[in-house]
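Model the whole thing, not chain by chain.
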Amino acid sequence: MNFWSFVDRVWLALGSVKLTFFIFFAILLLSIPGTVILQENMSSVDPGLQYDYDFWQFGQWFQLFRSYHSFWYVSLLVLLSVNLVICSYERWPQMWKLAFAKPVALKAQAIELKEKEHRYHSEAGLSQFESIQKDFDKWAHRKWINYTILEEGEGRWQAFWQKNQLARLANYLVHTSLLLIFAGAIWSGLYGFEGTLNVPEGAAVDTFLMFKEGSDAGLERPPGNQGLLNERMMDYRVEASAFNVEFYKDFPGRPKEFATHLNVIDRSTGAIVNSKTIRVNDPLEVGKYTFYQASYGSLGDYRLDLRVIRKSSLLADGTNSSFTDQKYISTKLGQVQKIDQFKTSFVPVKFVEDIEGRGPALQVQEARGDTLVGEPFWVLKNDPVYDFGREKDWAIVMDAYKPLYFTGLQLSYDPGAPVYWLGCLGMVLGTFYALFFQHKKFYFIVEKNSSQKIAVTFTGTTHRLPHSFEAELKKLSEDLSEHVIGKKMKEGEA
Amino acid sequence: MNSTFHEWSVGFLNYSAFIYLASMFCLFIGVLRDPQKSRWVFIGKYLAFAALLSHTSGLLTRWYEGGLERPPWTNLYESLVFFAWGASVLLNLAIFKWKVTLAGVVLTPFIFLLMGMSVMTPNKVVEPLIPALQSYWNRIHVVFGMLSYGAIMSSASLAFLHLLKNKFSIKKIGGMLSLLSMMLVLMMAGREFYKTGRLYLARTVEQTLPDGSKAQVKDQYREYEGGPIVTRFEEVPRGNVPVVVSSVLFLVAALAYFSRSFHKIGHRLFAAGIISMLAFLVWVIWATKVNEHLTLQSNPYLLMSLLTAFFFDLFYFAVLWKQGKFMDSLPSANRLDELSYKNLLFAFPAQTLLLITGAIWAYYSWGRSWGWDPKETWAFITYIAMLIYLHGKLLMKWKANSLSILAIVIMAIMIFAFLGVNLLLSGLHSYGAA
């Protein structure tokens, strides 16, 4: 066997329909393990901890823990693309011919043999030979049918028209679109990246945790290789200047909406490049980065609006805001507060949303420098004078508090997206066109009989869904009977 | 929340489930007597229509209750109802437009399966949407799911009738049914069965719903805020025995049916499998009576799935008994084949759009269009199976019988993609968790 005949054989094998079905079945079966076995990029659990060592080693070898990016799965998709391209190339001339070949006049015998059950027939007097042709022309004109005459003279007249020729080629749109989707996905896979970052309310960060890195991402690890292994520097510093979560009234803990006001700051100049309040389903695009609102979580900390008051300075009207000597502070848990006018320091150590049904409560302890001293005491929001019982000349009142959150952002760069979305569009249009539009051919034949009569025959073919086509053909024959022949056409043989 | 509307909607939907059941029984009895003349078939036919009316009213009142912005297909309860509705529309089309009344015998058990599951779902409160679900793409996405899965069910049912009519070996049909029954039993055994080899059911806990009513629900908690949901389980002592016995019997029955020399004992083995499946059900019901931590309500799908498999298998024996008359009342094999194909032809673009709209939604919500989440992947597997069907039909001109078998396989895959993934695998589509 010489080289070229070998190439030919490989070419034929790669373009064979048998291979197509083999690939289909293989994709179907090989998609399953990834839905059962833990996948690295989808879970925070390390497969190494989940499975015993032998299975883990086996899984590593066969890339079971990243099934859909494994060598075997990707090769299947590549093979499918190659198979698709060769198949399409080989079939193109045939398909083109089926769609655009010059129609051939049907011979009487051929109709008998091929289209027996879809054939409508009638007879008329010889005088009608011309008038039927004219009436047909009028009828076709009214129906927007653009027919061609295949046969004229020698006592035979044959008109032909067709619909949806392109339906024969629509599968090329579908298959090209599939290749576009693959191309877009490969482009995104090679050059795009995905990651996640949590930004505490009011703070800014400039790194994120990457879980899919493309070769061209070009993002560096934090200086001095600090931080986690998959931590990367962004081109920007991202500040969550405000975060707000709203809950449904009747459904505690069920968020209605959460939104972050993001400022994206240029790291080198310090200028704000873009800012926007992002919500779930409403991201922000800056350069090649897109920031998505994904989640949120409690920081376990609170913004506390406190007031330190001198107990003796209570005014006569007795309302708890009427103190002559008081100091407002806004703080968080764990921050030492030095109050010079009362010669003391204290630390808010713990906050409880509800203490024994008495509402929000803050535990506070006095401090000397960095060490806590004395007994901790409670300040209740709903009972402002509760702390007055302590043997000090000052007391603490809690005016307001707000839980602090971090906002969970998702970050991605997806350069192939326009390509695969275009592919999806083509896929949908092509699928509809290929499946719901049939290439239909119609033949209308008027023929002089020997017995001083003419025979009128109407027939048609379709490449798909013969039963529905039969109904259409029947309707058309009734229409033709009424408007063209003036006599009912019968189904079947002459 | 308008509680009157809520009661009306739940009422309509629950009634429709029982009307479907009644319709199924009438059609069954009709088949046993005389599928062409029996009055039972006539009653069953119109009951199916009545059920669709009640079903539609239930959906509409629920939509009105939740407001225009919240269409009634956003959690598992609602998607069960909505997907069953799609199948029911196709059922009524099959009966009244395509004149295949007997499609009802095959389709009603499946619609009853979905609707019965919805009746047994403890929490039917119209819950407002979390932000990720407040997207137009989500609404469109689910509609395509309903269209596709409904059409797949209808296609498989017609394919099943086509196989009967086209003189496909009734023994092999029995074999396929045994395999399907086995699949259902194994699916219902649950994830814990495969980890430990024993049968566990979710523990029950009483929960006060937001509307103040009480319900028996699964005992579940989150390990940490935003973490995965963990279910507490309770063992059904020796519950693994009927699971193993019935699956083995179904498997052996299928093998016997498919074999050349043993197919005669297939019927007996199949019947034994059905009996052991019922024993499994009785065993579980007994366990819920003995163990106060177990109720059927907290395992809503078990009863329904096993019952449906039972009804369907019963139908097989009915056909076996009245084969001749049953065949006579069916339209021609070609017609059934084309109807089955048309339904799949409708399902295919719907499935394409299901995948694409899901990808668009994911792209806007999470910044990624395709993530190989188990639910996504199984929808993709269903799509590939449909690709095989279409290429087999259009390119290879496979025989009608092979295509009909494939249509039934597609439905089996679809049932797994729709329910099995939520019951056995875990993933992002956990809004669908029971």
